Give the backbone structure.
Amino acid sequence: MHKIETKNVNFFYGENHALHDISLAMKANTITALIGPSGCGKSTYLRLLNRMNDLIDGTRLEGEILIDGENIYDKNTNAYDLRKNVGMVFQKPNPFPKSIFENVAYGLKVNGITDKAVIEERVHTSIQQVALWDEVKDKLKKSAFELSGGQQQRLCIARALAVQPSVLLMDEPTSALDPISTSKIEELLFELKNKYTIVIVTHNMQQAARASDNTAFFYMGRLIEMDKTKTIFTKPNQKQTEDYITGRFG
Amino acid sequence: MKKAQNLARKKSVSQNIAFTIFSLISYAIVALLVVILAFIVIKGMGVISWEFITEMPKNGMTEGGIFPAIVGTLCLVGVSMVFAFPIGILAAIYMNEYVKDGWVKQIIKQMTNNLAGVPSIVFGLFGMALFVNKLGFGDSILAGGLTLGLLVLPVVIRTTEEALKAIDDSFRQASTGLGASKWQTTSQVVFPIAFPNIITGLILSIGRVSGETAPILFTVAAYFLPKLPTSIFDQAMALPYHLYVIATSGTNIEASRAMAYGTALVLIVIVLISNLLANALRKYFGKKVKMN
């Protein structure tokens, strides 16, 4: 069974038909890169997977999106539970104005976990998972804003991991970071792949080529093609894909 | 070639003229403020003393101090804050975080703007009709404070709304993405980030409240009341009204002229202090939630 499955999805912002008939599937414990020029719908698609687009007024969805075989847009699906299972990391590091510890603990607390020992254990584990522990273990009580941009972004990943999701959505997670921080995050992706299914939107072709198993190319709200990353970057099926990855447009 | 040079010269000449005009206007504004302040300081400084600030007015308000007016103004500010801050902040949160874009939001927004445009004397009349008469509070700190609270409500709503609007949506999304409810997101993430800017707006509104005369005219202000209020149902003196009284209709206007300037100076200093406090608090809290 596929971890994430999208069947004939059309999505509208008011009158604007943003996604056209998207069908694709992702296996568990893979990294899928979504690429395409700005405004092609890749971020919109990503945000459908944790129902983040629900926050925008006047949107409408047709078709089905299944995670673990369940339609996440079903009436019986609880969006809060869904989002716990589908974590998200954003373009700019956006830690909350709280301490390093409280940032990671936040997701646990809003989900009603009050046992201090459990919280502490999960916070520590999550920070270790993103390879940030050695850098912050002595200053967990300090404000998260004291960290560098790259550290903040890893903290944001830890924050998402703390609520124990099985899917991790990343919306251009390294576009605001320097090359060294970027490579740290990419290394991290390989580690995390063992436990999570990762979907990453990126504008960086090398990143897509380096870090992902599969790549989906979006253009003008349509999925042009999706295949093994190696295939997409060596012998894509579609002319448009080739033009894009070789930099002829975009 | 020559044409291009001419054009460039023309441009730089007109630019210089424009800059000169703009800078002159800016300096003129600063100069105006300095002149007003200097005028009041020079005229009022003479009467400022410890006694002036801490004593009752004496001898038909031509001698003594303005202590009850200072206390009255502080009480009025206090009551108006207790009334306007919670209501204004909650209204702004509702408008910015909860209501969907649409006609409901438009109506609330338009009404808030209209409320901000109502002349303060109308607030005074309304306050008299509602709080003093209808609700039976009489001329009292409560009635005056509530009237001032109404007056400043749109200011509170607007500053809070601006502060909330300035927050990057990704903070809301990050919190929502962890399974937080709207209220958890608003109270635990959005509000703390907006707090430094909200508090600045609130304190600036205190400056506005403490200087208003018209709204307290019919609702609380006493012409002469040489004792301190003991409850919010008492009448009180207030600085702006006291200033008005001793400048226009006191028992001996000439004799109390210096006192009038002294009162104005005290009022200005109170507003100045609250503005400085606003800046200091914004810096203090701003550091705590510093954005990168």
About this structure: Strands of chain A lie at 4-13, 16-26, 31-35, 59-67, 70-71, 86-89, 167-171, 197-201, 214-219, 222-228.
